[in-house]
Amino acid sequence: MDTFGCGWKPRYGIRIAGTTKKRPLEETVTAPVPALVGRETWERAQTQRARNKELSPRNAQRQYLLRGMLRCGLCGMMYTGEFSRGRKHGHSDLGRRYYRDTRRVEYRFQLEGRCLNKPIRADAIEADIWDEIRELFQDPDKLLNELKAAQQSADEKLKPVRDKLQITEDLIKQAEEELDEIAMAMRAARGRMITKFEQQQDEINARLDALAKRRAKYIKEIGDGMVTDERIDTIMKAAHRVKRGIERANYQGKRRMLEALGTEVTVTPGKYHIKTLVGEKDGEISQMKRGGIRIVRNSY
């Protein structure tokens, strides 16, 4: 159903609740319903809903800053958080957080098909990425100009997708009009003609299902690529807090900032590639020594 534009109409052939039988046509009622929200608001809401589902911690017992943002550069699979303890007898170990390639987990008991990327210490890669984010905030004026440029570039790139969305909307409207015509014709039909109209009705409903999926795809693509003024404002507020101690940012604050910047991280053995709204950068993953000592490598 549409929640924007000119409203929506229920489909014909709705099934009776709890059964596989279709409700008689004479019992169905169609009525236009005014849109509750504008298209842009609806698109953003659907995108945020999908994003929340993807990044939701659900029942996670430990915090992983890069959850849903870290991907393997060798096999393309996402990394998931994993907690591990030492197994030495008599050795006290509080445990360590890791990011592990899901493909490596799936093929842990066989060599063929197993990804060669090794697990990554969470303390190391999280600190590396947050260092890159802090560096972005050193010059707020430059950051604002880069965000505005990213916003303009995103609008230009999304224009073809918006055009495709509009074409899909027109096709949906056309299909709904065809259903209206069939419904009117069925009222006067008899015998085999009713069966024929019902078949046409099912074909159009199947077409509407395909169009709805296509529309959802375009809406998500638009939402993922949009750089809204609200998003820029969120980032800039954080940038201006740098001088007041961004070092003390908690997990939630860091997480919101990474999401606002559209952060994506790709890792290969020993290296990372970070992509945000304002650019991309490569670096080497730091090492963690005993006692939690982090050995920082150079980024480039």
Summarize the structure in words.
It is a single chain. The chain has a four-stranded mixed beta sheet, with helices on one face. A three-stranded antiparallel beta sheet has the order 2-3-4. The chain has a two-stranded antiparallel sheet with strand order 8-9. Mean pLDDT is 79; it is low at 1-13. Strand 6 (271-276) and strand 7 form a beta hairpin. The radius of gyration is 26 Å and the shape is elongated. The protein starts with 38 loop residues before the first helix and ends in a 5-residue tail after the last strand. The protein has seven helices and nine strands. Helix 4 runs antiparallel to helix 5. The protein has one domain (25-295). With 300 residues, it is α+β, with helices and mostly antiparallel strands. It has helices at residues 39-55, 102-106, 122-136, 140-188, 192-225, 229-240, 251-260; strands at 70-72, 79-84, 96-101, 120-121, 264-268, 271-276, 279-284, 287-289, 293-295.
Q: List the total number of helices.
A: 7
- The poorly predicted ranges are 1-13
SSE pattern: HEEEHEHHHHHEEEEE
Radius of gyration: 26 Å
Spatial gap, N to C terminus: 49 Å
Assign a percent range to the helix content. Answer: 40-55%
The overall strand count is: 9
Q: List the strand order in the largest sheet.
A: 1-5-6-7
Number of domains: 1
SSE-based structural type: alpha+beta
Strand percentage lies at 5-15%
Largest sheet: 4 strands, mixed
Mean pLDDT: 79
Shape: elongated
Show the helix and strand layout.
Elements: H1 39-55, E1 70-72, E2 79-84, E3 96-101, H2 102-106, E4 120-121, H3 122-136, H4 140-188, H5 192-225, H6 229-240, H7 251-260, E5 264-268, E6 271-276, E7 279-284, E8 287-289, E9 293-295
Parallel strand pairs: 1-5
Antiparallel strand pairs: 2-3, 3-4, 5-6, 6-7, 8-9
